[in-house]
């Protein structure tokens, strides 16, 4: 089932490309496994922020949160063992994400993300603020 979701995503991503470029793309940028990697990379970087990492911009963070949105959609689309495995991986990553963030009701990100400012974004990962904001945020 994951391969079906990735094929659907690949077709969607190819739609916006010129035919000569689309023919060269073999894997989706935001498929199930690649999205898990993006989410994990964000968390890895956030765990380093308190150790002096200072080159992460707020809009990169917002992009990564939209990747987390996609993972939620993938989880809802999957069934059986595939869903169980994805949910298990997400639970482990989300636990780490919660450890490097704290709930602020979305106050920090509402400055940059209109759906949050308008009260239209309520998913829990959007209402959490990084414990340590990197320089250049």
Helical region count? Answer: 7
- Sum up the overall morphology in one term: globular
Beta percentage is under 5%
Distance separating the two termini: 38 Å
Short characterization:
With 137 residues, the protein is mainly alpha-helical.
Topology:
Layout: H1 2-15, H2 19-22, H3 32-49, H4 58-77, H5 80-99, E1 101-103, H6 107-110, H7 114-117, E2 128-130
Helix pairs in contact: 3-4, 3-5, 4-5
Tell me about this structure:
The structure is a single chain. The longest helix has 20 residues, at 58-77. Helices cover 61% and strands 4% of the residues. The protein starts with a helix and ends in a 7-residue tail after the last strand. It contains seven helices and two strands, in the order αααααβααβ. It has helices spanning 2-15, 19-22, 32-49, 58-77, 80-99, 107-110, 114-117, and strands at 101-103, 128-130. The chain is mainly alpha-helical.
Key features?
137 residues, mainly alpha, two-stranded antiparallel sheet, 4% strand, globular
